[in-house]
Amino acid sequence: MSESDSDSVSREVAQRVFAAEFNDASYTFKESDDDRAPVYLLLPTGERANRVFVVGTLTETEDVGEDDEYWRGRIVDPTGTFFAYAGQYQPEAASMLRDLEPPAYVAVVGKPRTYETDEGDVNVSVRPESITEVDAATRDQWVVETADRTLDRIDAVDDAGNEYARMASEEYGDDATAYTDTVVEGLESLESTDELDGGEGADQSEGDGNAVPDPEAQP
Fold it and tell me: In 3D, which of 97, 89, 17, 25 has the Cα closest to residue 53?
């Protein structure tokens, strides 16, 4: 079985999550001792994420590699900023970051990655599997759906048997409902003008919303 075949067999649901919640996440875990077992990021609203599906405005790209190209993209949603990093092992995503001209709306499917800073803080970023240019309507649809999924997770926090909610409470505290404000912030952004960051009109993004890659088993 090829590496791509293996990936497709083991591919996990891509969780929709706002940047504000994603950046608050810091705890990762495996559910088995197998070296190839998936690594999950524990979301503060009580869900595990091996893959995420995010849509926002690509505001900045930079090659931060030393010997080889290693591209960083700054992607902004209504609640904060995602950072995506792609290099030689993510050639298609790296090519998109190299060729896209910010500002542009993009949809990103990828895996969360954490790293500890010299100060002991844990930062989280996305290692993209795919990056697709999209339009404003696709961005707006993602905001609405991500708001719904976030509220669903908050509503399920107290459900019996919700082991990930219990884990999140232990790791992050009991206030998952605080992310209701994140949902409100996201939805209120839709009432403002549909302009790309930097003052450019949304029609500058030529992407077709139908071209967004299906993050497979979207929850």
Answer: 17
